């Protein structure tokens, strides 16, 4: 029941995220494109658990084909979400650390998005091939142990690789960020929070994957199978919670970005001489007294009459 509530919240908030990304958030176009693809990944990932809830409640499956299809969709969403977060981190790294680079050309963006989807689909294909509907136990299960262990290896390897790439990007980005009010830094902060949320939600799941892999190789660190099963259920709920948190994060950063845009627009359209909070304007009296005999500027008069005020 808890999982079904999380799934329904995820679906509703993913739709909200898409609307926020398109109509409300004032982000660079490339970042907005990556966010939309990330939202689609979350949507695909959330499709699978809907059928898992059905299997758990009614104790039956919808057939072999449906089982393979929704497992495939969920796997594609899982892999592609990590790839898009890596792509967003690399985009922020290039924009902040190497702002003069021309890597943001249209063909680079298109190739990066196509590569992310193609790689995710290829990695998820073995899942569709090896998973089957189990009528006696309910749900979709791997028919053999080896394909299941290989899948855990792939998930763990992709998670660690993504962690290393994103960690490198933000280690290089953070010393470069100097001006807290910069609009570019808001986008960088958004990407950083998304990546942090992803690792917090998915690290426990991948830790359990590591324990299962060690158990398969007869390296027993924790042998209480009941606790591992309960831990897996909790980790799945935590992982799906990320899909609920993403729209909230986007909304908060969107509001902050909108407020800064309104302040900047107000400061640009304000009449000259008006007072703005946090800014200073210099008013100088540059009038020059001329000597009646020479009709030339008097240096002493120039220095004495030049008065500046800061409003």
TrEMBL record:
Segments forming domain G-protein coupled receptors family 1 profile: 14-250
Family matches, as PROSITE patterns: G_PROTEIN_RECEP_F1_1, G_PROTEIN_RECEP_F1_2
GO molecular function terms noted in the UniProt entry: C-C chemokine binding; C-C chemokine receptor activity
Keywords: G-protein coupled receptor, Membrane, Receptor, Transducer, Transmembrane, Transmembrane helix
Region described as Disordered: spans on this chain: 264-311
BP GO terms, sorted: calcium-mediated signaling; cell chemotaxis; immune response; positive regulation of cytosolic calcium ion concentration
GO CC annotations, alphabetized: external side of plasma membrane
Gene3D superfamilies linked to this entry: Rhodopsin 7-helix transmembrane proteins
Protein name per its UniProtKB record: G-protein coupled receptors family 1 profile domain-containing protein
The organism of origin for this protein: Silurus meridionalis (Southern catfish)
Lineage, opening ranks: Eukaryota, Metazoa, Chordata, Craniata, Vertebrata
